[in-house]
Amino acid sequence: MSYHLYHTPAFVLGSAPRGEGSKLVSLFTRELGFLTAIAQSAREERSKLRYGLQDFSYSDITLVRGKEFWRLTRAECVENVFEELQGSKEAVRMLGRIFSLLRRLLAGEERNEPLFVAVLEGVQFIKSDYSPFVKGSGESASRGILNPTDFVQERSDWLQNRSALDLSWPPVHQNEPPPFKKEEQIAGVEIVLVLRILYFLGYLAPRNEFDPFLSHANLWDESVISKALLFRTLAVSEINNSLKESQL
After folding, report:
1. Please, what are the domains in the chain?
2. Which residue among 6, 175, 202, 236 is the one 20 to 30 A from 43 at the CA level?
3. Which residues of 15-47 are buried (b: 16+ CB within 10 A; e: fewer)?
């Protein structure tokens, strides 16, 4: 009996042990949307799937459809985002919140390529030299290197304790001109990415104030972040209202 193979890039949003050596993996894929798949024996040292299915990896995967769950037959890591951001604790924590939000909001196997591209471009910007996050500065060594189990716990806490998005940085007046401080720019990155996620999932209605960073959802630069910060109070209010109304 032959099975149809599905090939797609995917973000590994999280995973949980299953049985003695397998794992249940939450995936946000470009071609199939959000799904949960079984990775047989993926926790064993000899497994070829192991490195491509680490939490917060971006991987090329192959799946077959099973009766209850999808089944992973191949996973090749393109990049381990968690490891690449180890030099910036702020970036790691923010990405944890973003991936938790995706797990919370994504529903079922429904392709959403604009959302996938927006998340991918956002991750690439966070990793780039143009982002406000400090990378490779020894910050991890001075504060203690995060490991994946710490990261999973942090995401869990965020879901349990934050009923609304908390971006409680010092307030910014809408007439305040850039440049903004580094901590404000970091908040701006999260605002833009969360707005785009909610927009592409249909939880956020278009507004003229948000048009500069929603109409060109793949654009990332300092001007986009600065424009978002000018409307920070409105943006955070709209985000919190959208999350509340989603009832998820």
Report:
1. 6-81 (2.40.50.140), 85-246 (no CATH)
2. 6
3. beebeebbbbbbbbbbebbbbbbbbbbbbeeeb
